[in-house]
């Protein structure tokens, strides 16, 4: 398996990592995690907890774009080293994204989003 495909695997784990952060904030704000009605509880989160949940949602939204970019690059025969670099940049940006989001660093969050999206676009451009 190529490095780029390993990065897809890592990207699949990122929403779960942010879900754990959201669970921490749910327990902190409400005193417990309501597993019977988690979406209702998420909707009531405030501050860092609400941002953690938003970061989780964004991680899910970014996953199909990145997965498609890696698969298209692979099918188009992009050199694995080039695809790996773009994929690693995406992962680094997406690890920083929830950190900046939860910390309420909006400009850094937006910058990490743009870097990650730029990595996806570069994979598509390399495949063209």
- The proportion of residues forming helix, as a percent range, comes to over 70%
Low-confidence runs (pLDDT<50, min 5 residues)?
A: none
- Classification by helices and strands: mainly alpha
Question: Over the alpha carbons, how many angstroms does the gyration radius reach?
Answer: 16 Å
| Global geometry | elongated
Strand content: under 5%
Major sheet summary line:
none
Give the oligomeric state: single chain
Number of distinct beta strands: 0
Number of helices: 5
Give the SSE string. Answer: HHHHH
Ends distance: 22 Å
**Mean pLDDT over the full residue set:** 97
Explain what this protein looks like in three dimensions:
The longest helix has 28 residues, at 3-30. With 128 residues, this protein is an all-alpha fold. The chain has helices at residues 3-30, 38-43, 48-75, 80-102, 106-127. The chain is 84% helix and 0% strand. Helix 1 runs antiparallel to helix 3, helix 1 runs parallel beside helix 4 (80-102) and helix 3 packs antiparallel against helix 4 (80-102).
Q: Keywords for this structure?
A:
84% helix, single chain, 128 residues
